[in-house]
Amino acid sequence: MTQVRREPLADQAARLLLERIRGGEWALGAKLPGETTLAPQLGVGRSTVREAIRQLAGRGVLETRQGSGVFVTALDVQEEWGAMLRRADIAAVIEARIAIETEGASLAAERRSPAALRAIRRALAARGTERDGREDYVDADTRFHRAIVEAAGNPVLLELFDAFVPRLRQAMIDMLRMGRHADDGVDRDAHAELADAIADRDPGRARELSRAHLAGLIDALG
User: Fold this and answer.
1) Which domain holds residue 114?
2) How many Å apart are CA 30 and CA 90, to the nearest integer?
3) Residues 6 or more apart from 39 whose CB is under 8 A from it?
4) In a designed cystine with 130, which of 51, 125, 136, 222 is the match (CB 3.0 to 4.6 A)?
5) Is the separation of the CB atoms in 105 and 209 below 8 Å?
6) Does residue 35 form part of some domain?
7) What is the per-residue pLDDT across 81-135, written as a single tens digit (0 to 9) for each?
């Protein structure tokens, strides 16, 4: 069995453990052998094994459960969000945004508080005053859509939405620069209808309107 031979030992041990997980030696949810077993297999001390496990736990691959042991929680290291989104095709990013925002709009229609609805209305009004500056308009539009996701009351959806914003911002600005966007009146009405559906607590209509709007962005990409 391959053993660690070079520094840094903990990094090497973490890599070897990850290779064994990727290779299928331990399935998702499986419990790893104890430190006294892993240490001689890797050719390191128990403290180095502990550090390697901490590294992989920090990367979401392992989880230490007090009194139970160490368990596999992922079969590989997940790529950092920002790097993945920077490489993703803009249409693919919008498709993922559809999944987030349509559910967000539906939940917002069910759960929105009066304060959340006021925030949506304010963002909609601000969006209508920012057509001259492309960057300001895109930022105002983003604030409107974010207010809807925030009204859904799901912090995970909101975090996912925020992760998409940097990747989308420049693309939306470029689309406006090239004139590849919906007619102003149609676009304004679509956003107002979405806000009204949320105000009326109509989750089906809110979902439909959100999907139609975002699908239109993909169509505009040509």
Assistant:
1) 81-220
2) 37
3) 45, 46, 48, 49
4) 136
5) yes
6) yes
7) 666 656 667 788 888 889 999 999 999 999 999 999 999 999 999 887 755 567 8
